[in-house]
Each structure stands twice: as C-alpha cells, then as structure tokens.
Fold each of these.
Amino acid sequence: MLSFVPPDARYKIWGLANRILLALAICQLIPFTSAAAEREPYDDRYCTTCHGTDGRGNEGIEAPRLAGMEDWYLRRQLENFRAGIRGYHPMDTAGIAMRPMAKLTDDSIADIVAWVGSWDYQPAEITIEGDVQSGELLYGVCATCHGMDAKGNAAMGAPALAGQNDWYLVTQLNNFVAGYRGRHEDDRYGQQMAAMVGTLTDESATRDVVVYINSLETR
Amino acid sequence: MVNPVSRREFLNLLAATGGIAAALRAGTALNLLPGSASAASLDLLNLGSNQRKIAILGGGISGLTAAYELSKQGYDCTVLEASHRCGGRVLTLRHGDLIDEIGNRQYCEFDDEPHMYFNAGAARIPSTHRNLLAYCKELNVELEVFINENKTSFVQDDNMLGGRPIRNIDYTTNMRGFMAELMAKAMNCDELDAPFTEPEAETLLSMIRSFGDLNENDLYSGSFRAGYAEGGFLKHGVQKDMIAFRDLLKSRLGRQMMGANEGDTGPILMQPAGGMDQIIRGFLKHVGEQVKYRAMVTSVKVTDKGVNVAYDQDGVRHSLEVDYCFNCIPTHLMVGIDHNFPSDYVTAMKYVRRGEAYKAAFQAKHRFWEDLDIYGGISWSNTKSRQLWYPSHGIHKAKGVVLGAYDYGGGMYHTMMNQEERIEAHLADHEKIHPNFRELVEKPVTIGWHRMNHMLGCSARWSRNFGRGWTHEEETLYHKLQAPVNGRHYFIGDQISMHSAWQESAVMSAQWALSHMDAQVRAELV
C-alpha cells in the first residue's frame, strides 16, 4: 500500500509509525506484546494425571498402565489416537476420552515415549479371577504373535501383555470382540487382532485368558 | 360418592405430600436452618511449644482452609499443589491466564482490565454459606451482590412463539396470571373450598389474586407487572398484550424461570469484587509460603505414627513425613496414586463419579445488554449452551465478559467438541437471543472441567439415581471415605460432602476433619 511512496520516505513513515506505537504502548493504550513472554509455560507431560503414579494405571478412570509398554507400541497408539484410528467407536468411551489427550506434536510424542521409558516399573496388581487352565488353552492362539511368555513381539507388531492391568486387557478384548476397536480401515494391526479374537466366545473365556496372562512372569 | 376431605386431613395431607416436611428437609440440606458447624465453632487447640507436621494435598478451597486454620495454631503445614496455581475449581480467568485443559490448552486473551474476568468455576456465594462468608470477612475479601435472576433478561425456546425471545418478565407475569386463574377457579369450586373456613378461603383467594394480578372476575387479562408497551412516565402506560397460555406451555424452561429464586439460589447471592479467586488470594496472603507448586503427589502411605507422602517436583522425587495428612485430590485420581488405603476405602474412592460441568465465556466489544435495559442476570434458552450470563460488575464500563455456556449436568456435549466447534455452537445458540451476537463478542474461552489437568472432572457425584436421593449403600460409602484412615489421613473437599459443587461444602468438609483431628491431638497432649 506504500508502493507509491519513495523508499526513503517509506522509511520515515515507518519510523514515525513505530514512535507512535511506542508512545501508545507507554500510555498503555495498547498492550505490551512482551506480556506473552511472561505467560505460564506448559509441557505435554500430563500423562500421569490420568495414568497414575509412574504410569501404573488408574482403574478409577479406566486409564491403563503405560509403564512397561514398549516404546514402539506406545508411539503407534498415540499416533493412532491422534489420527482418529483408535477411539472412534461411540461405545469405546475410554478410547474417546483419550483422543483429545493425544493432540500431540511428533516431538511431544517422542518426549513422552522417552519419559515413560524412564519410569520405575512394578508389576500390575491382580484384580480378576478365573480358570487358569482354561485360559492357558485359549492363550495358544495369542502366543503366535504375543509370544509364549506374553512379552510381545516387535516384528509382529504385537505388544507385551504380561504386566498390563488385567481389567484393561479384559476391556480391550471385549472391545475387539464387539467391534469397538480394530475395525478402522487404517488400523492395520488392530484389524489383525480383531480377526484373532473369535476364540473368545463368552465373557468367562476372556477372563480366563487374562487370568492365564496374569500367571506369567512379568518383565 | 367421594367423602369430602376434612380440613385437618387436608392440611396433614398437604404437609405430608409436599409442604412442610419437604421444606424442613430442604431447609436443612440447604443450610437455611441452623447447621452443625460454623466458623465460630471451630475451636482448635493451639500447639504452643508442641510440634506437629501436616501435609495438605491440593491447594483448593478445602486445602487452604486447613492450611490457614492449622497454621494459626502453630502446625507446620506443607501444601502440595499439582498445578501451576492454587484454587482448583475456584478459577478466575484474566488476561494472559493459562487454561490447562488437556488437549485444548488456551491462554485467556481478555483485555487487561480489573473488571474483565470470568469465574470459570465457582461463581456465586449464597448468603447462607456462613462458613465461607466468615472467611471472606476474616480475609478482607470485598464482596458485591451477584445478580442471578433478572426480569429484563430473555427466555428463548425454538418451540415457543416461533423461537422469538421474550423477556423473563413477560414469561413469568403471564405464567403466574394463568396459574392464579386456575387456582382461583379451583377455590370457587365448593368441593375444594370445603376444607377451609370462610376466613381461610378468603385469605387464600386474595393471595391467589395477588399472585397472578387477577381482575375483579378472578380472570387474568394481562398485567402492568410485565412493564408497558409504551408510555409509563410522562404519559399513562399502555398495557402489553397477553401471551397465550398455550404458547408458554410450548416451552419447558418454566423450570428455570419459575424456580430462579429457590433452593441454592434463593438467598441473596454474592461474588468477591475482582473475581472469585480473591478468596484464594486472601488465604495465600497467610499461607502462600507453605505452598509447593507443580508438585505432583506420587504416593500416600499411612503408618502407625503418621503419613509418608512422596511427590515429584522439577523432575525430582521428594518425600515428606508428617503426623497428619489432609487430602483433597479428587478421589478418581487418587485411585491411580500409590497408597496403602484399606480396600473398603478404595471401593468408596472408585464409586464416586466425575461431574461433567462445562462453561464458556466471551469478551463483549461493548456492553450491548445494557442498551436493552439488562444489568446482570441470566438469559435462558433451550439450546445446548443453555445460559447467557451478563456480568453483575463493571456496569457502564466500555466492555464486559459474558458467560456464553454453562451446562452443569450434561457438559460432555460441548466437552467432546474441539475449540472451534464449541465456539461456533455458542455463537449460533446466542444469535437466537441477540441476533448480532457473533459480531458483538470476541476472545472466547472454554472450560471442559472433565478434561482440566490435575482435576479431570467437576464436582463429585455420589448419587447415581439423580432426583431420588442417595441410597443407603451410597451413604455408607460416603461415611467410610469421610472417616480418617488410621486416624491420620483425611479426605476433604466438596467431594466429602452431601452437597458437592459449593465452596461452603469444601470449607465444611475441611472444618469437620480439622475438628476430628483436633480431638485426637488434645488427647495426645493432655
């Protein structure tokens, strides 16, 4: 808009404008822009508010344990939540609750994954009961991907199960069975899992297999 | 044939079905009648040369009440606050403030002026909340009247009068008129009149006429109470047209309109001049040095002699050994923090549901409501935004902050939206009341209490059958959680009350715990 004004005059106008702005700022007619620098800082390390001390999970608000989760699995799930690949089904209430929490930058995700890895690890408390023998038979299918020891298999994209909150494993198995998880077209690994839960024909089968996982040694 | 009801029977029936018994219960619940505790009755022993260490987990109103009272009596208190600020759900937003909603962090961009603030949490103090008011007095917190119901504000419902907003006064005057006409007709019917003596019936009828401003034929034909269509000062006022009863019945908002001055909002309401957090600032003038910020509790272990608390601050895990611990961490978050509480205690902690309240506010570019004769108060609509609050303070100044949404029970509707969707929803809703609302406001803030960091919920929900009261089991769980663990660890906060969501409840829960602990300390020292 100043293109018709000669360059040196433009500079003078700019200088004058700046002086007026400065004077106005001193008179507090316009706010100081430096106020932004004094603002309360924040970071994205808010995970433990929900996921509990050292990420050991909080059954009270259905937040699973993050401690002990493999870095590659944690990253993938955060990215899935961020992309809406997970937590998309209206019946997956905990998953839906997680989605806005995962509005994170790649840098924040990397920071969180490293932070989670630094936490003190303790095995999860056992909260459910069932038939361990029946569970062992059912676990045979699971072992293909998650390993005989349920310690996970990165090459298969299958996370560790041993040491996770048992109530969370039950919820997720139920979600896979009901189609609340693993049906999104971009959720490749979730789809694999959804195809594998056919052997869990009722609630007691789900509980039994988790009780068997509970019996395995944690990391 | 139906036997006529005798007068005594009728009055007994009236009391039993609604009136007196219910009123007495409600009066006690609302603290309208003398309660068990008041600030004056809190008589804690001064420790003198004795020493006791106290950990207070959470710097909300209950935690600060505990810190303030105990410090006065010589206790060595440490307040661990997980967030960057004290106050909890006493949150006043001003220029530059961080709104730490997980997944939706915002900074408040209101103009930097003393009256440009928004009470995003607690916003009203009923005159019957005497314990809180006693602290306001003691801490020199200046109070001003909060205008809750305003007859010139609007009521708008898409189902009523084609969605045209009408003034509160038009709604209530006409509704009362029609209701009075119905009651007068009933009184003039012999059978219903029968239970009353002639003088009683005459008194009742005169009150009914007065309630609805009926004419000499006991009919409602409009009323000057609704204001004038024109004139009224230099010329005689011209009465407004009546609104048809049927039209008013298209809306269910009568629940808000006819009950505005009942219950918790019945007494005169007040707010601290300059923002609700003046109360927090008042406490912090005395106990501010004892607060550790961004200190997240990681473990609470009760021992025979006291409580061991661990917390993270600046990436370092610290520990604190104390004689007593007062804990106002929301129970649903405490479940995820290491502890050694007994299992029945944990059952109670897990039982409490999280409140879902949601609020939003806008800066108004000018005080457009004052041009419409509105000074303070609430406009109601049947939109999801529900309420539009005009500020009681800053009258005739250039700008003001309006509350643009308050959903106490069903706040998840907006909480589930992203920031842009929330704002658009409120703008669209309020355009139905103020057609150019969109152009009149700027700089929105939204607060989904269900996602606020370190709280993850609004007030605790004990009862799961809303409207039908608490079950016996719920009362048992509540009393379990109110009782201390091993005499050393007390849960406090409005979560440990039967009337959550009020600062008074938080104050009284802390005072209850302090009195209980005081009895133990007295026993130890005597």
Note: The first helix of chain B runs from residue 7 to 17.
Amino acid sequence: MYGETGNKLVQHAKRTQALAHLPPYQTEMVRAVTREVRDLDKDVASILEPFAGSFNPSTEPATACALLVNHLCMRRNKRCLLAYHRVRSDKLEEMCWAGIDVLERQPQPQSHKPGSEAPTMGTDSNSSSLSPEEEEYVRQYSDLLAAYKGQWTDIDLTGSLEPPKDLFIDVRVLKDAGEIQTEYGAITLTKNSQFYVRHGDVERLIAQGYLQRLS
Amino acid sequence: MDIDDLLAEVEVDSVPQEKRDLQELTRAWVAERVAPELLPWPESLMDRVLIRIRHQIELVEDQTGNMDPKANFKLIIIQTELERFKFLVRSFLRARINKIHTHPLHILNGHTEHSASALPLLAPSEYQYLMSHQALLSQHYASSFLSQFPASLQKLDDTTGGISMIDKPDEDAAVFCRCLRDVGEILVEGTDIRFEMTRGDVYVVRWSAIRGFVKSGDAELI
C-alpha cells in the first residue's frame, strides 16, 4: 500500500525520540520509500504521456484524481523521510553538544554487559547504528560546533546550564584521572579520594564521569 | 508627567552602566527563553559584557599568585561573579541556538529582511553557524535519500501544494509580560479583546499582541 513504509519510518522516529541511545539506521526502509517515490513518479509520467502536455483536469476527472493521489503520496513520503532523518540528526547533535563522542561509543553498548562479552563478538559487533552518511554528518557537525564554540572561548558554551551557586564544590573521585592543574596548584585525582575544588576546574571531569559531585 | 515618571528617570540615571548592563543582560536572557521567536541580537550590550568578562578573567589570572588573604577573598567574590555572568551569557546563547535549530529557514528569511536595519536578528557568528548547519543538513538529506528523488521534489523550502515546508514558531503563544511604561490600549489581533496596559501591570497575553512593546522596551517578559 502507498505510504505504509513511510508510516513505519515515522513510527520508528517517534520511538527514537524517547530512547536514550540511537537505534540502528533503517537502510532497507529508507530505500523502500525512496523506491516507492520513484515508481510513483514514473507512474505520473506514464499517465501523462498520452496527453502530450495538454492535460485538462476538468475533462478527465478520473485521471486527475489518480495524479493527485500519486503526487500527495510522493510528498508525504518525502515528509516522512525528512522527519526520520531530522529526528536522528537532532539526536546526534544533542550528543555532540553533550560532549559524547558518538563515533567512538558506537560499538560499546554490546560489550558493556559483564560476563556476556564473548558471545557479542559475533556478527553485528562491527556494525554501527549510524549510516555512513550520518557518520559523515556527525564528523562535520562536530567541526562546525567546535568552530562556533571557538568564537566564545571565554564562555565555554557546552558548559553546565545549571545556574552556578557555589564557586567551590566537594567532589569524590570515581576513576583515576591523573593530575590536573588548577590555580591553586596541581591536584592528583586518585580513586576514592575527596576534594574541595573550584567548580569550573572539574566541570569537564564530572561530565565525563571521573568525578562525582557531593551535595 | 507625574511623580512616577520623575522617579523612573532618576532611577535610570543614578544606576552605573555596569549595573544597567547586568539588568539588561538578565532581561534579554529571560526574554529570549520565554519568547516564542528569536529576538534581535543585542550587539552593543553583548560587546560590553564580553569585554568586561575578559577584563575580569585577566584580573583573576593576575591576582592568583597573590597570597594576601584580603586579596584572595576579593578574588573569590570576583570569580563567583564571573561564573554567574558566564552562565547568563552561555544560557542566553544556547537559548538562541536552540531556536535557530528549530526554525532555521524562517529565521534566515527574517534575518535577510532585517539585515539592512540597525538591529540584525542574528550575530555574524550565529549567521555563519546557521548557514553551515543548513548546508550540512541538506547535504546529509541529499546523500541519504533526496538525490534519488525526482528533481521537482528535491527542494527543502517548497511552498507549493498547500503546505509550506518552512516551519514557523507559534507567534500566538501566550507569554507573561510586565509593563514598564504606559502604552495605552492594546488590541489582540483576531479577537475583539482590548485592554489597557499601565506601568507595573502583569499580563498573560499573546506574543503577537505585545511583540512591538517588548522590542521597544515598553514591556518586559517574565
């Protein structure tokens, strides 16, 4: 049926919005919808062919209706595809802003479960949930973001969006993070130790999961 | 001119520029977060704020070696202030980027319309960002599927067929606003509601009805 795959794609996009990670790219469905559009376009061309450019809708209401349906289906499919890709690229952009390296992280979710690492090395451990085009997009978008951020060096655009309350905070070290330089000298962050440090100095490390903020 | 107006004038003149800038920045930040559409870029204000932030950062860097407890205490206060300023600017910029993301083509049209006037909609860097982001997106769409479409369907800003592809923000969304100066009677378009706004009044009203007053500074969003 016309538009059925497109509909599925939209449902997929809707589901993606609620998920924390990005589900695999539906190459097959995208191709199917694209194919449908091209077939419809061919249909339109073949319907119009006998009229040789002098088609009058009022004399041939039946043909006009068929054409209209075809056109609407094509437009609808285009919207579905655009929506699907937009949802995904929005998600990818969000990850770029949050400082998550999307390309690096891709294979990880599978090897995350302890004890089940061996079997996941099977068929799909290499396949990414991004399409090649999306990977390219992420790469270029991170460059763009870095360039835009570079114009606001003093502000640190990707910093926390929580209003700052205290200049200094208590943090506990969750993972060894080595030595960091602060205005008050160097601090060596070893696991399970606790520090009272300037928020701005360790914000990055908190976001990356090295430190935990104690309230 | 009554006593309120006189008071208002005295208030404005006696406040130093720095404090007024903070007030303006906070106002711009709140307005940007609440208004449904992108507001003009406050160029001179942002320039002043950014220069001041840079000064303060330099001052902090200069003074860090100083071990005098008094200076140290002052430094902590300056740093706290700095963090707050940085937060305001950051949040402000992020709110704008968010809107640029949601309605890129609509904003672009608005920007080209206003580019000749004194108050451009976008900062130069934001304009650059928008353009390269759009280029990236359309390239992504094209390589993913759009290039295989019939030529007549490849456009991204198509307005034929009854539906415009350019998404617009909801200009009739309700906002909270406080009136700063008497503006007289306001007519809410599309309805027959009229009301009078006087200084200090707070209203929930359609953005489209009070947009002009917010932009001219007669009212502020809260």
Note: The first strand of chain A starts at residue 168 and ends at 173.
